[in-house]
Amino acid sequence: MEEAQKKVRDYIRKNEDRAACYLQRLVQEDSTRGQESSAQAVIIEKCRELGLIMDIWEIGGETLKNHPAFCSDRKVFIGNPNAVGTLKGRGGGRSLILNGHIDVVPVGEVSAWDQDPFSGHIENGRLFGRGSTDMKGGTVSLLLALEAIVNSGITLKGNVIFQSVIEEESGGAGTLAAVLRGYTADGAIIPEPTNMKFFPKQQGSMWFRITVKGKQAHGGTRYEGVSAIEKAELILKGLRELEAKRNSRITDPLFAAIPIPIPINVGKISSGSWPSSVPDSAIIEGRMGVAPDETMENAKEEMAEALREIAASDPWLRNHQPETEWFGASWLPGNLEIDHELVGVLGKAFEKIKGCSPVIEASPWATDGGILNKIGGVPVVVFGPGVTKMAHDANEYINLKDVYEAAEVIALAILEWCGTA
Amino acid sequence: MEEAQKKVRDYIRKNEDRAACYLQRLVQEDSTRGQESSAQAVIIEKCRELGLIMDIWEIGGETLKNHPAFCSDRKVFIGNPNAVGTLKGRGGGRSLILNGHIDVVPVGEVSAWDQDPFSGHIENGRLFGRGSTDMKGGTVSLLLALEAIVNSGITLKGNVIFQSVIEEESGGAGTLAAVLRGYTADGAIIPEPTNMKFFPKQQGSMWFRITVKGKQAHGGTRYEGVSAIEKAELILKGLRELEAKRNSRITDPLFAAIPIPIPINVGKISSGSWPSSVPDSAIIEGRMGVAPDETMENAKEEMAEALREIAASDPWLRNHQPETEWFGASWLPGNLEIDHELVGVLGKAFEKIKGCSPVIEASPWATDGGILNKIGGVPVVVFGPGVTKMAHDANEYINLKDVYEAAEVIALAILEWCGTA
C-alpha cells in the first residue's frame, strides 16, 4: 500500500502541468446548459485513454421523467449525453462513485469579467473561467487520480465508477438518470467547490410560491379594501418564525459555524399594479432549505402547517387561505454520519497529503449528492478543490495547487476504499 | 322662479328615458385615456343641439406643461380635445362652471365583468359599464339640467360654462388647461360619484415611489446578504405609523364619518428576481392623501421626515437611505367652507327635490375640484349621482333615478345661482 501510494503521488506531481492544460481545454469548451457535448467529448476522450468501460447515453424517457425526484424544465436532452466510465476492479473490494457535473451556469454580465469567460487563462497559480471552480477543476482532480492509478499499473479490487453528468445546476436530472440506470456503489465522492472542506451533509432546498389574496379598493378609501401587501407581511413574519423554529432544532455540530443552517429565503415579492389601488393579490417566491435528516415532504408539510397557523391568526386570511405551490427547482439534502468509514478513509488520505485534519461541515447548498444519497442509497462525501465563493461569479477561478492536492487525496482514498490487488 | 322650477322639473321627468339612452350611448364609447374623441363627439353633438357656444381645443403647449400643477406623462393630446360649451346669460347674475371628465379608467380584468365593460346594459334601474358612475352619469345630469333650462325657454342672468375635460384620472391636465385658458367662475359643481352627498372639501393626493437597497447573496447563505424585502417591511410599518399620525390631527367634522381621512395607500411592491437569491432592491409605490388645508409641499416634507426617522432606527438603512420620488399623478385638495353660499344654494335645491338635507362630507379622493379651487380660485362643490364604491370597479353601474334627481337638483341650483331673467 505504501508503495502504491508513493507511485500515484509521484505520478500526480509529475503531471501537474499536463493536468492544468487539460483543465484549460475543458474550461474552454463552453458547457452551458443545452450545449454540454463538446466538453463531454473532452471528458470521454480522457476516459477512453484510461481504458474505462464507457456508457454514454442521452437521458430522458418515462421512468426518469415520472420519478418523484425528477426536476427539470428541459425539453430536449438529445446530443448532450451523460458519460460514465467504469474502472473494473478484480473483485473483493468496495466500489466507489466519482461524480462531477459538466454543465456550468451562464456567464452573466460579460462586462463583469476581466477576461473572456471561457479563456482558461492561467495567472499566479489560478486558472480562470466559467466552470473552473464549479466544477471542472474537481472533475480534473478525479481524472488525474484515476490516471495516476491506471498509469502506475495498480489494480484495484473494487470498481470505480467515474460519472460526468449534465443538469446538476438545474435540478440533478443527470445524476438521477445515472442512479435509475443502475449506478450505485458503496460510497461516492463529489468534488464540488468546498475549499477542500468535507461536506458529508448537504442542505437540500426547494422553491415555493405563496399567493396571498386581498380585496381591491381605491387608495383614497383603502379601508374598504384589504391590502394583499399587508397580508403578505404577515406571511413574511410567519416565515421568519418558521425559519427560527426549524433551525432551533438543529443541533448537529456540523452546523455549528453556520448562522442559519436551513434558511427560508424570500427572494421575490410582487404585488399590485397601480399606486392608488389597494392590491388584491401578492406573490411571494422563495427557497426553503431542507435539513439533511428530513424529507422534502416533511418540510413541505411543516410549511403548510405554519401557513395554516398564520392564516388562523388573521380574520381575513382565515377565510382567504394563502396558496402554496412548489415550483421550479428542488435539490435533495445529503446525509452521511461523520463516523461513516468513507469519511474516515477520505480523512486519513487528507491528513497524509495536507498534514492536518479536514474541516468537516454541512454545506449550505445541495449537490447531486442528495440524489445519490437519498435515491441511490449511496454514502456521499462532497469534497473538492474549488473556491466556494467564486462559484457562479464573474472571474470564477480555481487554485491549481488545490486541484493537484485534491487529486492526491482522492487517489489515496480510492486505493484504501477499493483496495489494491 | 316657482314656475321656472316647475318647468325644468317637468321637462326632466318627461325626458328620463331619452337621458338614459343618451347615457347608454356615451358609455358605449370607450373613452379610456388616449381615445376620448368618440365620446367627446357625443358630448359636443348634444352641446350644439343646446346652442352652447363651443370651444373645442387640443390641450398642450408650454404654459400648461410648465405650470407647477401640471402632472401628466402623456406625450400626445392630438385628436382628443377638451370641450367647453358656454350658455351665455343676459348679465347681472353669478356664473357657474359645470365640470365633468370624459376619460374613464381601464376596465381591468375583463373576466371580472358580467357583461361587456362598455355594454351600457340597463337592468332594474341600473345602467352598467365602465364610466357609467365615474362620471358619464354625472355629466348626463349636467346636460339634462341644461337641456331642461334651454328647452323650457328660460333665460339665465349669469353664464353657465359646461366643461367636458380629458385627463382627470391621470392628474387633471384637462381641467388645468381650461383654467389656464381663462375659464373661471363664481362657483362650480362637479358631479363626480358622491352617492348624492356634498363634498365641499376633497382629499388631495400624490404618488410616491420609495426605493430600498439590500445586499445580494445566495439564498442558502442568506445571512451573508441583506434582504431588501425585510428593509421594505420597515418602511411599510413606518408608513402606517405616519398615516396614523397625520390622521390623528384631523378634527374637521366633515371627516367624522371617514375611517381614514387622508390614507397612505401602498399599491405596489416589487422586489427580487430569483427565489434563491437575497434581493438587493425593493420598490414601493403608493398614494399619499393630502388634507384640504395643507399644501403638497408640506405633505412631502412630512413623508421625508418620517423616512429619515425610519432609516435612523435601522443600522443598514442608516447607511443606505431609502430614496423617494414623487412621480405620476398628483391631485390638489379642494377646500370650501360649508357656510359658503354655493353650498347653501345647492343644499336648498337638494332639499326641494329630495325632501331631506344633503349629507355633507369631505371626499376621500381628489377631483378636478382641487385645480378649479386652488389654481382657478373657484368655489367648488362636488356632488353627483354615481355610486362611489363602483368607481374603477368591475361591473361599474349607476342608478338611473339618481342621474335624474341630480339633474333636477342641479337645474334648480343653476336657476337660483345664476338667476333668471
From TrEMBL, chains A, B:
Coiled coil: none annotated. Keywords: Cobalt, Hydrolase, Metal-binding, Zinc. The keyword RNA-binding does not apply. One of its GO terms (molecular function) is metal ion binding. Its cofactor is Co(2+); Zn(2+). The keyword Metal-binding applies. Pfam families: M20_dimer (PF07687), Peptidase_M20 (PF01546). It is an enzyme of class 3 (hydrolase). Its EC number is 3.5.1.16. It comes from the Bacteria. InterPro entries: ArgE/DapE, Bact_exopeptidase_dim_dom, Peptidase_M20, Peptidase_M20_dimer, Peptidase_M20A. Residues 202-313 form the Peptidase M20 dimerisation domain. PANTHER family: ACETYLORNITHINE DEACETYLASE, PEPTIDASE M20 DIMERISATION DOMAIN-CONTAINING PROTEIN. Belongs to the peptidase M20A family. NCBIfam families: DapE-ArgE, PRK06915.1. This is Acetylornithine deacetylase. The lineage of its organism: Bacteria, Bacillati, Bacillota, Bacilli, Bacillales.
